[in-house]
Amino acid sequence: QVLLVESGGGRVQAGGSLRLSCAASGRTFSRNAMGWFRQAPGKEREFVAAISWTYVSTDYTDSVKGRFTISRDNAKNTVGLQMNSLKPEDTAVYYCAASVRVGVPRAQIEYDYWGQGTQVTVSS
Asked: Contact, 98 vs 29, CB < 8 A?
């Protein structure tokens, strides 16, 4: 059974930082893409960032570029999301996802496994 478990969410003031982590078990994703998505209250889930298994390729949605950094540790089967300069509009449930595909897919349909999500709340 494949399991993705996110951690690191919480409440922070605007301008602060949080680091999310996702641990995968049940299979290795060292040769596959991994990503982060988020869903704000009343909105659809949206792409945040993705990273290829080679570490070479990353992709970010425009609203987080320069503030968020995605990383991965293939030896530990984990993916992280460092979030700096947080804004109230970053408030959402953040989901880790893993794809059996290569590259840095943005579409949710291209991801095969999902975590349960972790809440991030940014207060003004």
From this structure: yes
- Distance in angstroms (rounded) separating the CA atoms of residues 9 and 11: 7
C-alpha 21 chain-centroid distance = 8
Could you tell me which of 19, 1, 12 has the C-alpha nearest to residue 80? Answer: 19
CA distance 59 to 46: 13
Rounded Cα gap, residues 33 and 75, in angstroms: 15
pLDDT at 55: 63
Give whole-number Cα distances, 99 to 4, 72, 119, in Å.
Answer: 12, 14, 22
Q: What is the mean pLDDT of the chain?
A: 93
Q: Which amino acid does the sequence have at 85?
A: S
Inform me whether the pLDDT recorded for 2 exceeds 90. no
Burial 98-109 (b: 16+ CB within 10 A, else e): bbeeeebbbebe
Residues 77-109: tens digit of each pLDDT? 899 999 999 999 999 999 999 998 878 999 999
